Amino acid sequence: MPFTQAEIEEERAHFANVIATFQQYAPYALNANNRRRKDIYTIPIEDRELLESVGYKERIAATDKAILANAEFLSHIIANPEIFGEELDPDNAEEVGQVPEGSQGHQHMQNHASHGHAHSHPQTHAHGSHSHSHGPPQGPSGQHRERGGKRRYKPTEHDMDKLRSTLKQLVRDWSEEGKVERDLCYEPMKEALLQHFSDIPEGERRNFRVLVPGAGLGRLAWDVAKLGFACQGNEFSHYMLLASFYMLNRTDEINKHTIYPYVHSFSNIENNEGLLRPISIPDVLPSSLPPGSDFSLVAGDFEEIYGVEDADEGEPQAGQWDAVLTCFFIDTAKNIVNYLRIIHRILAPGGVWINLGPLLWHWENNTTNDPSIELTLDEVKALARHIGFEISNERTIDTTYTNNAQSMLGYVYHAAFWTATKIV
């Protein structure tokens, strides 16, 4: 059904707030780092001298430089936000640079409600605790401060955590360092896809449509298109969509950009390299897909786009997909029954659903009064069978997610992997 004017205005406001978060990354991160500098002067002078002798002040100064380098990169991402059909407030436009014109092979479609998709683990003082940023906003919403008579959004810590997670997601999806983590997740899924279509000549794969919901920064979907399949990614988060658009459409050299994704926390760091090492992106040329590749990325809510049953309300989806690949995705559901029902409905007879991920139910204990159905792994698989899937090739894959490989702390998921064929 069409969106109301109020919903459209809410979406515009959210997009503007995301842009404001990108723009205010540098002062926010520099302020947090400057707190460390100030704290030095709260301790006895002899302690200060000892800290200086081990290089603590130099590390703080180096972190400032890394933050500014990140800010420069982020400014390129938001230099052309009109790609989403939105215009910046004139007061903010002066803070945004320009990028060259031209794009290829990548499609964004504006849709409603883009409020965050990323498995991440912010550091806390509670050992072993972790959180994620898929789902409901945490804590108070951002404040607006006056600027030139106009209210300007002041990002919250939760907003900035999403942006920091996006930087780490760039490592996972588009860097050489992220290859180990990528391969643990993406390679089994691609191998299962090729196995399912092993009787199809490579030149005919373009006739088979593959959907990747929760596509993040688009690497898995890009890899599938690289194999020759017609592939569409779907993503919900404006942070991810802005970054993926820039990487896929505005990046024309391998290792063109350098980011410092690990500078935001000094905890659990063995040495300066663990904190300050540069990461070059991308490790491949995004425009290197074969000529005629069918690859797109659609912005919006999975259920709203692919759950449409009335063809008059949108693109008919039932039976139109030959494969659906879900990587760290199904636990974003408020109602997992509806997710699985949609996947089953949009698959063609004999189509395959390939899944890998944990069950970190993202709406559990939410503060927004949203429903949250939280099944065990056995219950999820039983539900899939009831809906009409035959599950095979089940196994557990141990993997991290946007992990700092040189940190003293790392979370390992015992992720569930399976191939499921639509049989009814």
Q: Provide the residue-averaged pLDDT.
A: 87
Q: What is the tally of beta strands?
A: 11
Report strand order across the widest sheet: 7-4-3-8-9-11-10
Helix content: 25-40%
Structure overview:
The protein has 424 residues and is α/β, with parallel strands linked by helices. Helix content is 37%, strand content 17%. It has 13 helices and eleven strands. The chain has helices at 5-23, 25-40, 45-53, 56-77, 90-93, 157-174, 179-196, 219-226, 238-249, 272-276, 302-306, 336-346, 377-387, and strands at residues 143-147, 150-154, 209-213, 230-235, 257-259, 279-281, 295-299, 321-327, 347-357, 389-399, 413-422. The strands form three sheets. The protein has a seven-stranded mixed β-sheet with strand order 7-4-3-8-9-11-10, sandwiched between helices. It is globular and about 75 Å long. The two termini are 28 Å apart.
